[in-house]
């Protein structure tokens, strides 16, 4: 399987009442990022599209699935680590005194909701399932930065999911076989959106 794993485009900030997970739409710049990404991927021979069930991933995939006439497959296991947090703020809008930043600096694994092993297992199982269901195909997978970091971490065998940063619409290219072999071909490919990342 050829996997093109993408981080979603830039969303809006969103705050919801306690108990409801923030699930923001794309911002104006995010919609532009999604469109130029679709322009690039339209010529990649993509046969299937998988998305996180979160709105920012679904909306990022939308221009491509419409262009290719594909039905995206939602996968819960690809949801971001902050899926239950009632506030989402793009990192570019957070100062060092923001509560999320302070929490992260005190405990880096707090972004995983206090259960990093469960998050890692969920992500690994999700990608293993995608590979198993799509043998011999080229698949675009729209998900999130922490999901991509953990997936890459498991492939490279290092212990730090924060080591590589994934930009909005950055592409991770991986060749994956059903016997568990994963080969990284490209990390954080962003030339197509560099002018929109500012």
TrEMBL record:
<dbReference type="GO" id="GO:0016791">
    <property type="term" value="F:phosphatase activity"/>
</dbReference>
<dbReference type="InterPro" id="IPR013078">
    <property type="entry name" value="His_Pase_superF_clade-1"/>
</dbReference>
<dbReference type="GO" id="GO:0005737">
    <property type="term" value="C:cytoplasm"/>
</dbReference>
<dbReference type="InterPro" id="IPR029033">
    <property type="entry name" value="His_PPase_superfam"/>
</dbReference>
<protein>
    <recommendedName>
        <fullName>Histidine phosphatase family protein</fullName>
    </recommendedName>
</protein>
<feature type="region of interest" description="Disordered">
    <location>
        <begin position="7"/>
        <end position="30"/>
    </location>
</feature>
<dbReference type="Pfam" id="PF00300">
    <property type="entry name" value="His_Phos_1"/>
</dbReference>
<dbReference type="InterPro" id="IPR050275">
    <property type="entry name" value="PGM_Phosphatase"/>
</dbReference>
<feature type="compositionally biased region" description="Basic and acidic residues">
    <location>
        <begin position="9"/>
        <end position="19"/>
    </location>
</feature>
């Amino acid at each position: 399987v050829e996997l093109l794993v993408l981080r979603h485009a830039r969303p809006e900030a969103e705050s919801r009442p306690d108990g409801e997970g923030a699930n923001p739409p794309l911002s104006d710049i995010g919609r532009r990022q999604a469109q130029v990404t679709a322009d690039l991927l339209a010529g990649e021979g993509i046969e299937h599209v998988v998305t996180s069930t979160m709105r920012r991933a679904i909306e990022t995939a939308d221009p491509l699935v419409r262009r290719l006439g594909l039905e995206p497959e939602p996968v819960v296991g690809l949801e971001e680590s902050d899926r239950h947090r009632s506030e989402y703020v793009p990192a570019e809008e957070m100062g060092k005194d923001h509560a999320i930043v302070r929490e992260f600096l005190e405990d880096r694994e707090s972004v995983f909701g206090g259960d990093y092993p469960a998050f890692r297992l969920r992500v690994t199982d999700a990608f293993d399932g995608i590979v198993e269901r799509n043998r011999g195909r080229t698949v675009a997978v729209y998900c999130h930065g922490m999901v991509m970091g953990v997936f890459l971490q498991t492939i490279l065998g290092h212990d730090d999911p924060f080591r590589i940063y994934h930009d909005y619409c950055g592409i991770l290219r991986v060749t994956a076989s059903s016997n568990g072999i994963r080969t990284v071909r490209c990390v954080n490919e962003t030339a197509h959106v560099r002018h929109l990342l500012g």
